Amino acid sequence: MSESVKRALITGITGQDGSYLAEHLLALGYKVHGIVRRVAFEREGTRLSRIAHLTDLVTLHSGSLESYASLYKIVQDVQPDEVYHLGAQSFVSYSFDDPFSTFQSNINGTHFLLEAVRLIVPQCRFYFAGSSEMFGQVTESPQTESTKFHPRSPYGISKVTGFDLSRNYREAYGMFVCSGILFNHESPRRGLEFVTRKITWHVAQIKQGKKTQLALGNLDALRDWGFAGDFVIAMHCMLQQSQPDDYVIATGETHTVREFCELAFSHVGLNYEDYVVVDPKFYRPAEVHLLLGDTTKARQTLGWKPQVAFRELVHMMVDHDLAALSD
Ligand code: NAP
Ligand code: GDD
Question: Hey, what CATH topology would domain 191-223+254-289+309-326 get?
Fold first, then answer.
């Protein structure tokens, strides 16, 4: 292999973002390594489904964010030039059910990985997957890199701690560590538990006569929804700068869950009011009511901007789910 080929290590490569990022880095000529949980090798059909088309192109390593030893060994074996730390318990709702395991993987996992990188490859560039959930109960709108954090869930708290750890490794050890403060980003590869994919999957089922109802929680929550394929490009851009820094990545538009429903149902000629019911069981103990990102810094410094608009995203996801059902 040529000396100039860069090695990237991705945690969470089996997830939505990991799959798009792996594609992007392969297209740029990187040698891509990914960490997957051992169980993924036992259930390749489901657990590796998002990267099924890439498994011959990437090198997968079995490991877990709960195990410092496994992360240390993988970093030692791979000697990465860039680490993209995307692995996490990423479902906000579940973090209320099991905050302890969320903290374990999201806080300790981040700390373990940062420490392994510091000890083995301190010159390696490191991306931490921060989140707009860190803003939580927002103190200003739109949110920028300097907006105060007020997390409203164990997940949000875990990401604030991961963000603080990442910044501390940058400041204390001079490491090249960047955090992306990414607002919600979606795609046909989004997990079915998240509201956008739950809606588009149900729209397809309802259109095909396989379901009659969609039960949701808070329809008035506002989110700044972008396309995951656009957002992973920003992750890579951050690690190519001359200085490490943190960036808000968003679209700069916000829409309610209700608007998402309206658009998704109307795309197949249906009225969402005929199918959507509110079930309080989907409410959260504490809600994040409004998210809206200001990407001035990312636009000016990274030259990044989103390509896929809200309407196009909704249609892309509905069309995908309709096509998947007809296969
Ligand atoms: P995702 O689809 O839920 O993927 C999460 C990934 O983390 C999966 O590959 C999962 O592996 C892995 N993982 C979870 N727990 C693990 C553990 N204990 N050990 C090893 N791997 C583990 O999430 P995503 O949407 O791609 O998001 C990627 C990252 O960005 C996450 O850190 C998320 O919190 C953050 N983020 C996402 C958004 C968004 O809107 N998508 C916005 C801001 C920040 P399995 O396949 O084995 O479960
Ligand atoms: N999941 C879900 N299911 N959410 C619902 C439902 C439902 O039935 N009904 C209403 N919602 C509302 C939630 O209360 C929330 O306000 C909004 O829809 C979005 O919920 P999710 O799609 O679960 O995403 P999230 O905003 O909580 O978290 C996602 O974005 C974060 C970035 O802001 C995740 O991807 C996080 O990992 C990410 O950090």
Answer: UDP-galactose 4-epimerase; domain 1 (3.90.25)
